[in-house]
Amino acid sequence: MTRRRPNLQGRLVRLHLIVLCAMTALLVGVQTAQLYGEARERLGERALTASRIVAKLPVVVQGTARGTQNAALNAQVNVLREEAGADFIVVGNARGIRLAHPVPERLGKPMEGGDNAQPLAGQEVVSVARGSLGLSVRGKVPVWAGGVPGTRVVGVVSTGYLMPQVWHLVGSALISLMPWFVLALGLGTVGAVWAARRLRAEILNLEPEQIAALARQQRAVLAALREGVLAVDAGGLVTLSSDRAVTLLGGQSAPAPLATLWPELALLTAGGAARTQNLELALRGEPVLANLEPLEGGGFVAGFRDRAEALALAEELTHARGFVDVLRAQTHEYQNRLHVLSGLLQLGRGEEALRVLNAEIHADAQFRQLLRDVQVPRLVALLAGKRERAQELGIDFQITEGSHLGPHWERHADTLVSAVGNLTENAFEALAGQPGLVTVTIGEDPDGMQVEVEDSGPGVPAALHDTLFDRGASSKGEGRGYGLHGVYSRVQGLGGSLRHTRRGPLTVFQLSLPQPLPHRPPEPAEVTA
What we know:
Blueprint lengths: L7 H48 L2 H9 L4 H14 L3 E6 L4 E3 L16 H4 L4 E7 L2 E11 L8 E10 H40 L5 H17 L3 E5 L4 E5 L1 H6 L7 E2 H4 L1 H6 L7 E8 L2 E9 L5 E7 H40 L3 H21 L6 H17 L2 E4 L13 H18 L6 E9 L2 E8 L27 H11 L3 E7 L2 E9 L15
Parallel strand pairs: 12-13
Antiparallel strand pairs: 1-2, 1-5, 3-4, 4-5, 6-7, 6-11, 7-8, 9-10, 10-11, 13-14, 14-16, 15-16
Helix pairs in contact: 1-5, 10-11, 10-12, 10-13, 12-13, 13-14
EC number: 2.7.13.3
Membrane topology: Multi-pass membrane protein
Protein name: histidine kinase
């Protein structure tokens, strides 16, 4: 059974408490060291003051001058020790032999600690040393002959406080500070909980593992996209770019100023970006289609793709939809014909069934005859399908007699199929389900080829006369007006023209393309001997 990790709030609180406890322990250590130094210094001053007083007592001056044991000296020094609150006051002669000591058994023995050199040389000193009673802070002063400083040193007085007294003072000071440490720990805990909750709210209540997973998914999604994606902050800095965007930008990636990567987009969004779809821009001299999505708090996300790729995809979809419509129409029409023939045969009216079948064969043959001189197979197949589609819609679909087109136009078959398919479908839609006539005329001359698509519909609305071939221009609602724009762009790319006019009751769309350049076979490779 896997152990569940605590959530972000629990982890932040625990981490904050660990840091706070560590800092508290560090502060306690620093404070302890400081208090220890202060206690040692204070006790050293007290010891030094007591030693000075004792060193000036006549009994001490006379006793150290004689250098022999004196019970009265020891008794008087011990009384002073109790009054001073010291752990010991030791008096030694010039050779460091004890003349006064709290423990009578140690009288007459050498003083311990190894710190008598300076006092016997006439200097006062505060030291920490280990004597017979233990480690202590001691203040030592010399005893001068006759009690007059600067004369001969006849002894030494050492007043000391054992180290447990120092630690007792430190402990007392720390205990007095403990409530403040506890208060700081409590306030730190409350602050950690509050900060953790605020942070969790800022990151949409997501755990770090979830954020990491989302970041990995984001990178994978950006890598899988076939269009470029840029994220731009409120200051105009590109903070994120997909692999495709880096390619389209010539290898430049985030982070970088948008004005450096894409000046035209930076100028367009200088005052803030609004939601925009299929915006035509130039990127490094190439046309692209961009979608802009503003972000909360400023900035925006831009998705963009090569305009030629988008148009090619749109044409593929248009072709696919056209083929589906053609197949559906053919299926529907043939089913109707089969049902008619089946019904006539079941009724025993074989001759009438034969007449219907011959009429269909004759109509098909006549239609094929009209297209015999159009030598672009894909265009012929499209027109045959459109005929079936027109029959399904109840529209009279005709090919002008004498239509012709040479085989060298096969190299522009994609453009012709796209153009004629769009124009005929628009003509069908213009009739809005009402019976009508759609006529296609195809021809060529030394200057190029021409296609006319006529329909008996109501014509192009006056409001669209000047913008009919613009992207998105349509009277059929949102999401329309891209097919005709794509056809117009491709025709212009080949040096041709596309226009519309009104001829009496008919709406006419005229497509013209110049003669294609002659195909030059590759030159044979030069062979050297």
